[in-house]
Each structure stands twice: as C-alpha cells, then as structure tokens.
Input
Amino acid sequence: MSEDEDHYAVLVCTLDDGALLVYRDVRRIGTLRWCDAAAWAEYEARLGPEPLDPAFTAEVFATRLSKSRAAIKKVLMDQRVVVGVGNIYATEALFAAGIDPSKPANKVPVEKLRALHGHVVRILDAAIASEGTTFRDYVSSTGAPGNFQLELYVYGREGEPCKVCGTRLVMTHDIDARGTVLCWRCQT
Output
C-alpha cells in the first residue's frame, strides 16, 4: 500500500490469503461499526429499506417520504427513510423527477414521489453498472475508477447550462448544508 493510500486508510485487515481489505474514508464522513449479531440487528432495525429491493415499491417509497415536512432532498438522504441514497444520487434523481430539492416532502404530489422512486432506482442501477462515480480518487472494488460522473445532469455542474433547458445551473447550501446543484426552470 502506498503512502497516499495509507493516508486515507481507516482500517486495514490482512485476510487469510494475504490480501488486504482496506477501508478508506477520504472525506472522513463514513462510519465503521464493529459489533456482534445482536448489536447489528438492533442497528439495522433503525435503517430504512434498500431502494433496489423489489419489495421497495413506489407506493412504499411515496408513503415513507410523504410523512415528513423536511426538504425532500434531506428526507431522501435520511438513512432511516431509505438507505444508500447519497448526495450525488439524490441530486440527480430530484432533477430527473423535476422536483425542487427544498420543497417539503409532504408537499410533493404522490405522482411525483412515485416518479422519483423510478428515477432513484434507475440512477442507482446505472451508477452500479458504471462502477460508481469518480471525481478524484474513488475506485471500484476492482481498483478501476467509476464512470457514472460522465452521465451526471446536475451534480458538480454549477454554473454550466442545464442539459435539458439551457438555464444556468445554481448551487445552494440552504437545504442541509450539503451542496445541491439544481435547475430553477426544470425543478419546480
């Protein structure tokens, strides 16, 4: 392991075959838990459903999100509501669904929430097929950079024209202190 890689390594485990299992947290925003089965079950019970599970239907999704008065983006990224939807994928899915990320979740029409469900699933599937999103140093489990960044419509494109309508994309930090890029024309 190089010094650069070692700098971000939070945990390094040597496996029986001598291979290294390395947990790297470049931005220091991850969480690592070491627990027994009972503690894991307790932790997992607090998490929302997996968005790629076939049982997680558009109806289930809409019901879970519509219970909150918080901004739809904040709710979408809340791991107690649905797991695995981070800033990049929430930003992209909300754009694809034409939803203003600051709109209270309980004010988003049910048909838009159902559409958002479809976009979340489609975007996560596409990101997985592309082996993730690489801006600087992310690599997949194979060690290769991901390619989903080539498919982004809004995330990381502040100041550029919207690929749909040409309006200049803007960045806000007003929703949850995370950067959110959006198109004021396409997302209402």
